[in-house]
Amino acid sequence: MTQTIKKIVLAYSGGLDTSVILRWLQQTYGCEVVTFTADIGQGEELEPARRKAEMFGVKDIFIDDLREEFVRDFVFPMFRANALYEGTYLLGTSIARPLIAKRQIEIARQVGADAVAHGATGKGNDQVRFELSYYALQPDIKVIAPWRTWDLNSRTKLLEYAEAHQIPIARDKRGEAPYSTDANLLHISYEGKALEDPWVEPDEDMFTRSVAPEKAPDEAQYAEIEFEHGDPVAVDGEALSPAALLTRLNELGGKHGIGRLDLVENRFVGMKSRGIYETPGGTILSIARRGIESITLDRGAAHLKDELMPRYAELIYNGFWFSPEREMLQALIDQSQEFVTGTVRVKLFKGSARVVGRKSPVSLYNQAFVTFEADQVYNQQDAEGFIKLNALRLRLAALGRKR
């Protein structure tokens, strides 16, 4: 039995799936549907989504530019933790979902909607990320996930429904797309269908944000990234807003074939999936951040951050951005960034980004202590007692074994 709904806010891309969902919601619930389309740097023209929503008779249409908020309030805080899921994934899709959900709930409050809807399937992580965020922000919100309830469970049925209800179908959508994509300012992902066999290498023409490393320029390029309190603020001496800075790094990384990843990951819902990712600017930023922290973070603080990072990354991947434990970890991480200030020089060449220089006005690196030349600040004989004290338990253990 269909629950009584007064008004729904739909996360709407304007594509085939969400257009079918829009019409289905109108028919199934017989109520007003509000559409919300987020510009988070996916690089697509969003006005067609407005025109298509108008065609469906939607009165309230929201198309919001969230690029600056996305990078400033979601990407940068995540990068302060040096977060990598399962050691390699820079969480490009994961970090966008809480922002979309947050804005969706804000719109629901603004227009007096009692329900929100999304187009995520019942097999993936995104349904979890959206809905955990919804409930964290609005505990009594009603959530509609059509892919879990309707009978349009195949591409053929979806196309038949679209044709029966005069929903425009792009020519290439009538056949099976070779893979599905999701894009934002941090990355683009490719999953499914032609990519489901993890043994098969993806076609080169699939990639859109980077050249193949072997086709990248034969001459290296250097980039200097300036940080203040853990966040990047300038590239090559030019101060940039968060979104503009990530855009610049995307251009540099894409030009040099940086940031491609072929990954088999463990989804939160329990299955393994294969995904291909392009994260050119994020890869450069991740490497540069490690560089600046290497001279500005105390050893204990740096090692503690590294111990906490897998847990933090897993929280984001699983959809717990608005959880108290993520916020607790964020407070600790942000505290560690007070003196992470300075400049890193990165060398970009044929798919690689390497730190080749770092400097900071608050650097903990002291050449007077580490030099191999004669010095007046470190007595090498002090190391003998240090070693013996650390060896004491090892010696006692060895003696015990002999007995």
Can you describe this structure?
The protein has helices at residues 16-29, 47-55, 67-80, 97-111, 126-137, 146-149, 155-164, 242-255, 280-296, 299-318, 324-336, 367-370, 382-402; strands spanning 7-11, 32-39, 61-65, 115-117, 142-144, 180-183, 188-191, 221-228, 231-235, 238-239, 260-266, 272-278, 342-349, 352-359. The longest helix has 21 residues, at 382-402. Helix 3 packs across helix 8 and helix 4 (97-111) packs across helix 5 (126-137). The chain is 41% helix and 19% strand. The strands form 3 sheets. It has a 5-stranded parallel sheet with strand order 3-2-1-4-5, with helices on both faces. A 5-stranded antiparallel sheet has the order 10-9-8-13-14, with helices on one face. The model has no long low-confidence stretch (mean pLDDT 94). Strand 11 and strand 12 (272-278) form a beta hairpin.
Give a brief description.
This protein is α/β, with parallel strands linked by helices.
Key terms:
Argininosuccinate synthetase, chain A, domain 2; 403 residues; elongated; 3 domains; five-stranded antiparallel β-sheet; single chain; Rossmann fold; 13 helices; five-stranded parallel β-sheet; alpha/beta
